[in-house]
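Our platform keeps sequence and structure together, in a single record for each protein. Because each token names a local backbone shape, the row as a whole describes the fold. One such record is reproduced below, unchanged from the form in which we store it:
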Amino acid sequence: MTQKQYRDQAYLIKLGSHFKCKREDKGWSQEYMVQLCEIDTRQLGRIERAETNSTISLIKKIADKLELSVSELLDF
């Protein structure tokens, strides 16, 4: 199965990597993060691997749990 390519794929790759770094900086596992955000483990993995284009609502929820503003999470 081929991975869907989004128009802004390069940005999604950077975002997923940045998000993963912020999560790891806090020492949080994926399992802990999904519990905080009340999302599926597979969804978190897809975000970090740039396999999905998340909604702004989910981005805000992730930023809130990481104690970042949305602009901090999106600015890398």
